[in-house]
Automatic annotation (TrEMBL):
Species of the source: Anolis carolinensis
GO biological process, one term: malate-aspartate shuttle
InterPro entries in the record: Aminotransferase_I/II_large (IPR004839), Asp_trans (IPR000796), NHTrfase_class1_PyrdxlP-BS (IPR004838), PyrdxlP-dep_Trfase (IPR015424), PyrdxlP-dep_Trfase_major (IPR015421), PyrdxlP-dep_Trfase_small (IPR015422)
Enzyme Commission number: 2.6.1.1
Protein name in UniProt: Aspartate aminotransferase
Reaction(s) catalysed by this chain's protein: 3-sulfino-L-alanine + 2-oxoglutarate = 3-sulfinopyruvate + L-glutamate; (2S)-2-aminobutanoate + 2-oxoglutarate = 2-oxobutanoate + L-glutamate; L-aspartate + 2-oxoglutarate = oxaloacetate + L-glutamate; L-cysteine + 2-oxoglutarate = 2-oxo-3-sulfanylpropanoate + L-glutamate
Key words of the record: Amino-acid biosynthesis, Aminotransferase, Cytoplasm, Pyridoxal phosphate, Transferase
Entries under Gene3D superfamilies matching the protein: Aspartate Aminotransferase, domain 1 (3.90.1150.10), Type I PLP-dependent aspartate aminotransferase-like (Major domain) (3.40.640.10)
Family membership noted in the UniProt record: Belongs to the class-I pyridoxal-phosphate-dependent aminotransferase family.
Record GO terms (molecular function): 2-aminobutanoate transaminase activity; L-aspartate:2-oxoglutarate aminotransferase activity; L-cysteine transaminase activity; phosphatidylserine decarboxylase activity; pyridoxal phosphate binding
Length: 415
């Protein structure tokens, strides 16, 4: 308490709620039976329910019965078999970097934790020391947390690179390449490994090659954010193509992996920061500094999610079952894309809707404007982000007709 009975917190301003969590709270509070949540980035079954992957249930039971396990602290950098195998699925079994022992991993609290530890490290040590002035480039648009994570880690110069061409509803590759050319050498670029959030639009392999060529020539640092491996195409390998290509081109890079979506382990907070460096000696020094950062951040990570992932990745039958589970989720998203597009086309909803099936991953960037979004929320009880991004998993056989008719009404009534 301050003098005069005043609170020491009196000057704290009220922060704005995080939009996507607020949207879920509003959805929960809505009593209308027609309500649909197309906001939060989590998988839902065709019954609109969260899905515990069958392989996860199986491994959880194994863990419960395993009396050799206990609740001792994990090492600061995490469970060794989790770290090694997470990096293996990102980089591939035959990765030259793994063979040459120049890969390391840090178990983290979700993909967010991996980004934050990576950002903290880069600010302290990237290409010298105390790099608060190094430009960090994020795509325009991007996942809303990228900017804050890098700002809170101390970076002072966050810039955006061109990515989305709203008129063409696709990738602005020319703008992207120009921004790479213009960026100061050694700038850091946050790249979405696959299933770009929020646009659902990724570069083609040819375009990735162009991006890599400029980045290599201009000494730009790739920091991949891989939150949806397997979700984009249903194949872990196909979705890791870009990261693996950059490694094959000799880049040193970071890759923040999240197992929230592809394992459905959202609240277990499971992620891994994969570090690829020039040689093993560099990796070891980098990890030694990351250990210091983790020690003052969460000290050491939780075990449950890491055990589930590590057991699954190291047991061939479970690994095969998991890949099947991922494919089930990816296929349902593809089906919902096709169903929504065909309904909008059948209704002759003004505009073109091919982007719904051309975009990939969990999200679709519909092109709906903020007024149309507000109409859908207020009048139709359909919750989506102000950007017009929808989570395809929020669609079900039961609500598709209602959502399509509502989008049709929004587009025809509101400009
Ligand atoms: C692009 C992107 N990066 C990172 C994350 C963070 O994932 P996690 O929940 O594992 O921290 C998300 C989650 O929505 C995301 O969409």
């Amino acid at each position: 308490m301050a003098p005069g009975g005043k609170s020491v917190f009196a000057a704290v301003p009220q922060a704005l709620p995080v939009a996507v969590f607020q949207l879920t709270a509003d959805f929960r509070a809505d009593a209308d039976p027609r309500k649909v949540n197309l906001g939060v980035g989590a998988y839902r079954t065709d019954e609109g329910q969260p899905w515990v992957l069958p392989v996860v249930r199986k491994v959880e039971t194994m863990i419960t019965k395993d009396t050799s396990l206990n609740h001792e602290y994990l090492p600061i950098l995490g469970l060794p078999e989790f770290r090694a195998n997470s990096s293996r699925i990102a980089l591939g079994d035959d990765s030259p970097a793994i063979k040459e022992n120049r890969v390391g991993g840090v178990q983290s609290l979700g993909g967010t934790g991996a980004l934050r530890i990576g950002a903290e490290f880069l600010r302290r040590w990237y290409n010298g020391t105390n790099n608060t002035a190094t430009p960090v480039y994020i795509s325009s648009p991007t996942w809303e947390n990228h900017n804050s994570v890098f700002t809170d880690a101390g970076f002072k110069d966050i810039r955006s690179y061109r990515y989305w061409d709203a008129a063409k509803r696709g990738l602005d590759i020319q703008g992207f390449l120009e921004d790479l050319e213009k960026a100061p050498e050694f700038s850091i670029f946050i790249l979405h490994a696959c299933a770009h959030n929020p646009t659902g639009t990724d570069p083609t392999q040819e375009q990735w090659k162009q991006i890599a060529a400029v980045m290599k020539r201009r000494f730009l640092f790739p920091f991949f954010d891989s939150a949806y491996q397997g979700f984009a195409s249903g194949s872990l390998d196909r979705d890791a193509w870009a990261v693996r290509y950059f490694v094959s081109e000799g880049f040193e890079l970071f890759c923040a992996q999240s197992f929230s979506k592809n394992f459905g382990l959202y609240n277990e907070r499971v992620g891994n920061l994969t570090v690829v460096a020039k040689d093993g000696e560099n990796v070891q020094r980098v990890l030694s500094q990351m250990e210091k950062i983790v020690r003052t951040t969460w000290s050491n990570p939780p075990s449950q999610g890491a055990r589930i992932v590590a057991t699954t990745l190291t047991t061939p039958e479970l690994f095969a079952e998991w890949k099947g589970n991922v494919k089930t989720m990816a296929d349902r998203v593809l089906l919902m894309r096709a169903e929504l597009r065909s309904r909008l086309e059948a209704l002759h909803t003004p505009g073109t809707w091919n982007h719904i099936t051309e975009q990939i991953g969990m999200f679709s960037f519909t092109g709906l404007n903020p007024k149309q979004v507000l109409f859908l929320i207020k009048e139709k009880h359909i919750y989506l982000m102000a950007s017009g991004r929808i989570n395809m998993c929020g669609l079900t056989a039961k609500n598709l007709d209602y959502v399509a008719a509502s989008i049709h009404e929004a587009v025809t009534k509101i400009q």
